[in-house]
Write a structure and sequence with these properties.
alpha+beta, Aminopeptidase
Length: 162
């Protein structure tokens, strides 16, 4: 396996992985709010890649036998001009996507991708790394905890009964 920076010939593989992740999230979403919109496959990868371009980010791919088996995307967090009012605003990297193909899990691919992104954020003088994990994604939460991450914020949700 090798880790490379994203290149356009791998766009279809990236799309496939994003759909695989979204299908998994649909399967664990107890609120049934996630969806796989008909335009998701076509548009999501392009939106993610544009966000990376706009925010000093990177996308790294784990390649095995010329096939993408995992990916990680991350950006440098932009702050608004007023964020300093209630936050110290240290330079932060944010992992926006981490996906390992179901066929390649538990083989160190996710750890290798995390290490690559963490090295990038260090090279950009980031002080912290953030990752937003879906609350019902127990596998993801456990993975990040094993990598030394911990919760800082919780979002609570309640369905309004009518």
């Amino acid at each position: 396996m090798e880790i490379i920076e994203y290149r356009d010939p791998y766009l279809e593989d990236v799309r496939n992985l994003l759909v695989e992740l979204e299908e998994y999230l649909l399967s664990v979403d107890q609120d049934e709010l996630d969806q796989l919109h008909p335009e998701y496959r076509e548009k999501m990868a392009l939106l993610d890649l544009q966000e990376i371009k706009d925010h000093q980010g990177k996308c790294f791919l784990a390649i095995e036998n010329e096939k993408v088996i995992g990916l990680i995307m991350g950006i440098i967090v932009p702050f608004s001009e007023f964020d300093y009012l209630d936050y110290k605003c240290p330079k932060e990297g944010e992992i926006t996507e981490l996906i390992v193909s179901s066929k390649a899990r538990s083989k160190g691919v996710g750890i290798a991708l995390m290490n690559k992104m963490e090295d990038y954020f260090k090279s950009q003088n980031c002080e912290y790394i953030l990752v937003d994990v879906f609350a019902y994604n127990r596998i993801g939460i456990n993975f990040y905890h094993k990598q030394g991450y911990h919760p800082r914020m919780h979002v609570e949700i309640k369905k309004i009964e009518r």
